[in-house]
């Protein structure tokens, strides 16, 4: 007997069986690298049913067929937007920003010539707090900031959250850790409890749609000096993590660095990077020479 579990109704009494759930999770994993376990059934189930309702599909089977074969891929993107988690705030895990300005950037420029750009990539960037935090920390705390051409690239798989990042509007909670003097310098109050980052910073960051499991979308990132990839790989399985790590390795310039989330350890995923300690954090460096 095939087990099943109930879903929230979309008005048509739709239910999703365990077999259908497994098929969906396998499909979503292939498309995004994100893996959902059985303990995420309710979360996944609820969002699928919401999309079934909004597309007026009659069943999970009808909806799943549309997602897989729709030529435009529009519904798959909307589903991805619905399924991804975007929990972040300014200066999150700020010890890595300390390491950035006191150790990583000085190390990077040792191998640079004047006129060479410094390329930084924030992935996934969510609603923009991380890349904007990177920019503010560099401007405020790195004494050589004015002497280098610094490119900050930011990407995410969620088109809706990218639009929010480009708009640069944030809640009071999101900016809660921003010191008052920096809040007044880099933000303007729009409405009660809402702040918009200044146009100069909004215009300085290149936001783009990137799915890290799609080589055609990541190949544009090459000779990156520093990658911030925090709390993404926890959603991947072991195979997906190794493949993502190898992709980031290819994207980095020789001697480049990657910063992971506090619960992520490169040593559990791959040995191709060398651990480096800067102040209170461990980051990972691509060898300068690949001998």
Count of individual domains:
2
Order of helices and strands: EEHHHHHEHEHEHEEHEHEHEEE
Secondary structure tally: strands = 12
Low-confidence stretches: 1-12
CATH superfamily of the largest domain: Vaccinia Virus protein VP39
What distinguishing features does this structure have?
21% strand, alpha/beta, 11 helices, 291 residues, single chain, Chemotaxis Receptor Methyltransferase Cher, domain 1, Rossmann fold, 7-stranded mixed beta sheet, 3-stranded antiparallel beta sheet
Task: Give a written overview of the molecule.
The chain is of the alpha/beta class and 291 residues long. The protein has 2 domains: 8-83, Chemotaxis Receptor Methyltransferase Cher, domain 1, CATH 1.10.155; 95-285, Rossmann fold (3-Layer(aba) Sandwich), CATH 3.40.50.150. 40% of the residues lie in helices and 21% in strands. The chain contains 11 helices and 12 strands. It has a 7-stranded mixed β-sheet. A hairpin with a 2-residue loop joins strand 6 (187-191) and strand 7. Helix 5 (95-109) crosses helix 6 (129-141). The longest helix is centred in the first third of the chain and has 15 residues, at 18-32. The chain is globular, with a radius of gyration of 21 Å. It starts with a strand and ends in a 6-residue tail after the last strand. Mean pLDDT is 90; it is low at 1-12.
In short:
The chain has 291 residues and is an alpha/beta fold. The chain has helices at 18-32, 41-54, 60-69, 74-83, 95-109, 129-141, 159-167, 180-186, 199-204, 215-218, 238-251, and strands at residues 4-5, 16-17, 117-122, 149-156, 169-171, 187-191, 194-197, 205-209, 224-229, 252-260, 274-278, 281-285.
């Amino acid at each position: 007997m095939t087990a099943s579990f109930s879903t929230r109704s979309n008005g048509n009494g739709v239910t999703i069986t365990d077999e259908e759930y497994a098929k969906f999770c396998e499909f979503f994993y292939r498309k995004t690298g994100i893996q959902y376990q059985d303990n995420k059934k309710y979360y996944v189930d609820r969002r699928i049913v919401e999309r079934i309702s909004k597309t007026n599909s009659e069943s999970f089977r009808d909806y799943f067929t549309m997602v897989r074969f729709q030529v435009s891929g529009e519904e798959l993107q909307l589903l991805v937007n619905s399924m991804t988690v975007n929990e972040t705030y300014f200066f999150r895990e700020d010890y890595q920003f300390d390491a950035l300005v006191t150790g990583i950037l000085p190390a990077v420029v040792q191998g640079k010539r004047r006129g060479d750009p410094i390329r930084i990539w924030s992935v996934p960037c969510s609603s923009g707090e991380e890349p904007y935090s990177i920019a503010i920390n560099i401007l405020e705390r790195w004494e050589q900031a004015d002497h280098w051409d610094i490119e900050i690239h930011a990407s995410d798989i969620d088109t809706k959250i990218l639009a929010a990042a480009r708009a640069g509007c944030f809640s009071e909670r999101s900016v809660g850790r921003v010191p008052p003097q920096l809040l007044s310098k880099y933000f303007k109050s729009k409405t009660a409890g809402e702040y918009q980052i200044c146009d100069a910073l909004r215009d300085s960051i290149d936001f783009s749609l990137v799915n890290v499991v799609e080589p055609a979308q990541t190949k544009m990132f090459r000779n990156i000096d520093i990658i911030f990839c925090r709390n993404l790989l926890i959603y991947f399985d072991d195979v997906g993590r190794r493949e993502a790590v190898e992709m980031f390795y290819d994207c980095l310039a020789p001697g480049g660095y990657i910063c992971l989330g506090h619960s992520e350890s490169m040593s559990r995923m791959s040995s191709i990077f060398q651990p480096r300690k800067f102040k209170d954090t461990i980051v990972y460096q691509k060898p300068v020479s690949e001998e």
